[in-house]
Amino acid sequence: MKVLVTGGCGFIGSNLADFMLSRGDEVTVLDNLSRSGVKHNLEWLKGRHRKSFRFVRGDVRKDQEKLDGAVEGADAVYHTAAQVAVTTSVSDPRMDFEVNLLGTLNVLEAIRKSGGNPVLVFTSTNKVYGEMNDFPIEEADGRYDYKSLKTGNPESTPLDFHSPYGCSKGGADQYVRDYARIYGMKNVVFRMSCIYGTRQFGCVDQGWVAYFIISSILGRKLTIFGDGKQARDVLYIDDLVKAFDLATKNASKTAGQVYNIGGGPQNVMSLRELISLIEELSGKKLDYSFDKWRPGDQRIYYSDARKAKRDFSWTPSVSKRDGVTLLYEWIRENRKLFTEL
Q: Are 191 and 260 in contact (CB under 8 A)?
């Protein structure tokens, strides 16, 4: 296939590009290299694939001509370029809007004007469902849980954009859906939960699994916002890449559809549980303290991904323990990358 990955030097994008390059696809990576750590991912891709892929330094907000050229002739477009932190959206809502909503509109327009009809997979977020206050929660086994949604949150849950990030991603989510309806485009929306894995340069604002591990390995103090009992379903990056691939191959079913993509009930993990696992792997205690809750932070969220299983035979295969162990070992082996950030 001929493929475009926007944000292709980011955590998700670089793993996806590597997978497709490794099987012989023709891949164009577009990225503005603004996020900390992504230059390391670009060098990694170059080292593994030398000149077998095309890198375009461009910004989805303003480089429409570069976008148009990158989309030309593509069989699939994976739009992973994004502003990804709720906290950043609160402090700079205009930038968040421009990257997530305007940037997505620019990608959609590039595809529409191209005359082709590639599959487009858009990386949305569970934040489009907001705080889900209509679903009572309880505390069980030292973490929060839904009282009734024991198979996880389904796609039928009403949207309730919360925080500027939720609004910008939610607006983009709906544009992607509607372009499929209005223009007959083969667009697919992934409303993703917590994705983690190698090539992830997590920070205090985003990528909490990686950030906790980085803090442990480098001996840095952690701040826990809230009580640490908040929990998410975690999904290892390899499983997400498989979901991208399967959704593309099954475009006759997935086009125009929305899917909740996450680790599901079997991979739910609280912050406190992650800390315990890291302490087990490292053999030492983490240094952490608690602070007040951050706005828009759901106490519990996990995905009901059965629609993805039904439509394109996807289920997660990497357990939370195995995934965290893999990420821990990768960060430990590459700790120099993180001391330089």
A: yes
Closest among 173, 2, 180 to 76, alpha carbons compared: 2
* Token code pair at residue 175: 């544009």
Domain boundaries defined on the chain: 2-200+234-267+300-318
Q: Are 307 and 260 in contact (CB under 8 A)?
A: yes
Active site residues: 165
* pLDDT one-digit tens code per residue, 98-153: 999 999 999 999 999 999 999 999 999 999 999 998 999 999 889 999 999 999 99
**pLDDT for res 137:** 96
Q: What are all long-range contacts of 317-321, with beta carbons under 8 Å and residues at least 24 apart?
A: 317/238, 317/239, 317/242, 318/236, 318/238, 318/239, 319/266, 319/267, 320/234, 320/263, 320/267, 320/268, 320/269, 321/277
- Residue 340 reports pLDDT greater than 90: no
Residue 186's H or E segment, with its range, is: strand 186-192
Q: Are 29 and 52 in contact (CB under 8 A)?
A: no
Kindly indicate the confidence band of residue 51, based on its pLDDT and cuts at 50, 70 and 90.
confident
Q: Minimal CA–CA distance to 124: which of 220, 75, 34, 189? A: 189
Task: Say which amino acid occupies 289.
Answer: S
Ramachandran area for residue 339 (φ above 0: left; ψ -120 to 50: alpha; else beta) = alpha
Which pTM value belongs to this model?
0.97
Helix (H) or strand (E) holding 268: strand 268-270
Q: Specify whether the backbone of 91 is left (phi greater than 0), alpha (psi in -120 to 50) or beta.
A: alpha
> pLDDT tens digits, residue range 153-178?
999 999 999 999 999 999 999 999 99
Task: Give CATH for domain 2-200+234-267+300-318.
Answer: 3.40.50.720
